[in-house]
């Protein structure tokens, strides 16, 4: 489209979630409670890991980092969504880019973290004697720094290519936050290059991280079956089961959102999928990992006893 004589738009309107007017207050209260529980749960888990020296090992350093990214992604999306229940969801182009950068950073880093956690469990269960040598705290911290830097580079890369787009015809974003696909749909510039970049790089990241998770847990399963130990099986299944549940809940909506053909119904479904992995998953992760972990629950009980 020719944009030389067109007025370039610098402010957008987020349509938000579709709901009937009588559901406005109940939905607002539900999402507010979810957000508060998410922040308290994830930041509480981080505080618990920081304050207990027994949890200063790679598994819990990774878990604390996952809690950090969950709190980050929830704080990136939910507050703006809550405000939009009562005020028209206006957002400037710069705010939109910042929100997408923050979302892409946390979502990408979480993919890498889930893969790293799967590899950590593989080493711990399949090579228990070598685990303290292979997965040291120093190596884990270096790995975490690398993962966060990769997340920053990936999100900055997408924002850089987003800045080449112009918006002149419509400023209505059919979403509750600035996601990249709805922006492509209202762009006056051909977004084919951006779509190709997303298809290649996002696909590579999802394939690499999901394969790492699947291969790691398949090797863990084979190792457990060889040992024929009921106690070991229960312990390993409890740990790995929580990880697999979290991975399935995260990758499921993410995968279907990017492979589904475009349509009005698909747009609404994409919004529901996004709601699931930006609002619900950050709520569930600390529950999944904490309540099924004896060390975390024991540490929580000790902290509560000391404070009480």
UniProtKB/TrEMBL annotation:
<dbReference type="InterPro" id="IPR000276">
    <property type="entry name" value="GPCR_Rhodpsn"/>
</dbReference>
<keyword id="KW-1133">Transmembrane helix</keyword>
<keyword id="KW-0675">Receptor</keyword>
<dbReference type="Pfam" id="PF13853">
    <property type="entry name" value="7tm_4"/>
</dbReference>
<comment type="similarity">
    <text>Belongs to the G-protein coupled receptor 1 family.</text>
</comment>
<feature type="domain" description="G-protein coupled receptors family 1 profile">
    <location>
        <begin position="41"/>
        <end position="289"/>
    </location>
</feature>
<feature type="transmembrane region" description="Helical">
    <location>
        <begin position="193"/>
        <end position="224"/>
    </location>
</feature>
<feature type="transmembrane region" description="Helical">
    <location>
        <begin position="274"/>
        <end position="291"/>
    </location>
</feature>
<keyword id="KW-0552">Olfaction</keyword>
<feature type="transmembrane region" description="Helical">
    <location>
        <begin position="57"/>
        <end position="77"/>
    </location>
</feature>
<dbReference type="InterPro" id="IPR000725">
    <property type="entry name" value="Olfact_rcpt"/>
</dbReference>
<keyword id="KW-0716">Sensory transduction</keyword>
<comment type="function">
    <text>Putative odorant or sperm cell receptor.</text>
</comment>
<keyword id="KW-0807">Transducer</keyword>
<dbReference type="InterPro" id="IPR017452">
    <property type="entry name" value="GPCR_Rhodpsn_7TM"/>
</dbReference>
<feature type="transmembrane region" description="Helical">
    <location>
        <begin position="25"/>
        <end position="50"/>
    </location>
</feature>
<feature type="transmembrane region" description="Helical">
    <location>
        <begin position="236"/>
        <end position="259"/>
    </location>
</feature>
<keyword id="KW-0812">Transmembrane</keyword>
<protein>
    <recommendedName>
        <fullName>Olfactory receptor</fullName>
    </recommendedName>
</protein>
<feature type="transmembrane region" description="Helical">
    <location>
        <begin position="139"/>
        <end position="161"/>
    </location>
</feature>
<keyword id="KW-0297">G-protein coupled receptor</keyword>
<keyword id="KW-1003">Cell membrane</keyword>
<keyword id="KW-0472">Membrane</keyword>
<feature type="transmembrane region" description="Helical">
    <location>
        <begin position="97"/>
        <end position="119"/>
    </location>
</feature>
């Amino acid at each position: 489209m020719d944009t030389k004589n067109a007025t370039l738009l610098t402010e957008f309107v987020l349509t938000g979630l579709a709901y009937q007017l009588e559901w406005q207050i109940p939905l607002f209260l539900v999402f507010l409670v979810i957000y508060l529980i998410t922040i308290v749960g994830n930041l509480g888990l981080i505080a618990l890991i920081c304050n207990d020296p027994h949890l200063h090992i790679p598994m819990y350093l990774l878990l604390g980092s996952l809690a950090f990214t969950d709190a980050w992604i929830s704080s990136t999306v939910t507050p703006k969504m809550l405000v939009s229940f009562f005020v028209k969801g206006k957002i400037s182009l710069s705010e939109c880019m910042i929100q997408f950068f923050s979302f892409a950073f946390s979502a990408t880093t979480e993919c890498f973290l889930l893969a790293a956690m799967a590899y950590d469990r593989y080493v711990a269960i399949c090579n228990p004697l070598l685990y303290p040598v292979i997965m040291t705290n120093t190596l884990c911290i270096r790995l975490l720094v690398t993962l966060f830097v990769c997340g920053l580079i990936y999100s900055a890369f997408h924002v850089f290519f987003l800045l080449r787009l112009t918006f002149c015809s419509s400023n209505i974003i059919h979403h509750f936050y600035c996601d990249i696909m709805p922006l492509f749909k209202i762009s006056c510039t051909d977004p084919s290059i951006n779509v190709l970049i997303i298809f290649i790089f996002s696909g590579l990241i999802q394939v690499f991280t999901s394969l790492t998770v699947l291969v790691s847990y398949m090797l863990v399963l084979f190792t457990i079956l060889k040992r024929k130990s009921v106690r070991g099986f229960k312990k390993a299944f409890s740990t790995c089961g929580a990880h697999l549940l979290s991975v399935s809940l995260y990758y499921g909506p993410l995968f279907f959102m990017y492979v589904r053909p475009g349509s009005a119904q698909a747009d609404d479904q994409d919004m529901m999928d996004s709601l699931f992995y930006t609002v619900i998953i950050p709520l569930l992760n600390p529950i999944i990992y904490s309540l099924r972990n004896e060390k975390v629950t024991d540490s929580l009980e000790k902290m509560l006893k000391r404070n009480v």
